[in-house]
C-alpha cells in the first residue's frame, strides 16, 4: 500500500489553488486553476496535496453538499528554514496565526489557514541539543 495524496474538498477552488501554488510555493501537476481537481507537490519528497471541488464529491456522496464547518484537516509541511519561509509566504499574502516558535525540543512550528479554513502547520526539524 502507498499513500498517494491527501485531498482537500474545497468550495472556492481558485482561491485555494492560488494559496497552495503561489503563496506556499507548491508545484501544480497540470495547471488546472479552475479545477475541479489539482495535485500539488513540494520540491522534494513523494507526498502530495490535492484539491477537489467539493460539489464534485457531493455528487457522489450527498452528505458533502452541506456547508463544511470547523477545522476539518491539518496539512503538515516540513521546511528547512522556518523563519525565512514564513517571511517569504507572508510577503505573498499568508497570515500566520502562530509562530514561528518551539513546539518541542526537536521541532519549531508555525500555523496558518488556507482560504477554506484548513489548518496548515509548517515544521522545522531541529537536531537534538546536547
TrEMBL record:
Keyword set includes Metal-binding: yes
The record places domain VOC at 2-125
Query: Which organism is this protein's natural source?
Result: Streptomyces doebereineriae
InterPro entries (alphabetical): Glyas_Bleomycin-R_OHBP_Dase, Glyas_Fos-R_dOase_dom, MMCE/EMCE_epimerase, VOC_core
Report the Gene3D superfamilies cross-referenced here: 2,3-Dihydroxybiphenyl 1,2-Dioxygenase, domain 1
Q: Give the keywords, sorted.
A: Metal-binding
- The reply on keyword NAD is no
Protein name per the record: VOC family protein
Q: Which PROSITE patterns match?
A: VOC
Amino acid at each position: 500500500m502507498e499513500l498517494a495524496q491527501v485531498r482537500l474538498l474545497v468550495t472556492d477552488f481558485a482561491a485555494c489553488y492560488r494559496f497552495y501554488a503561489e503563496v506556499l510555493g507548491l508545484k501544480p501537476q497540470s495547471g488546472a486553476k479552475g479545477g475541479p481537481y489539482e495535485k500539488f507537490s513540494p520540491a522534494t519528497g513523494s507526498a502530495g496535496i490535492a484539491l477537489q471541488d467539493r460539489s464534485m464529491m457531493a455528487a457522489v456522496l450527498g452528505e458533502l453538499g452541506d456547508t463544511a464547518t470547523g477545522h476539518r484537516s491539518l496539512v503538515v509541511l516540513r521546511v528547512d528554514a522556518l523563519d525565512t519561509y514564513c517571511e517569504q509566504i507572508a510577503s505573498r499574502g499568508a497570515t500566520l496565526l502562530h509562530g514561528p516558535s518551539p513546539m518541542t525540543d526537536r521541532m519549531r512550528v508555525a500555523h496558518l489557514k488556507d482560504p477554506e479554513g484548513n489548518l496548515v502547520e509548517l515544521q522545522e526539524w531541529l537536531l537534538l541539543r546536547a
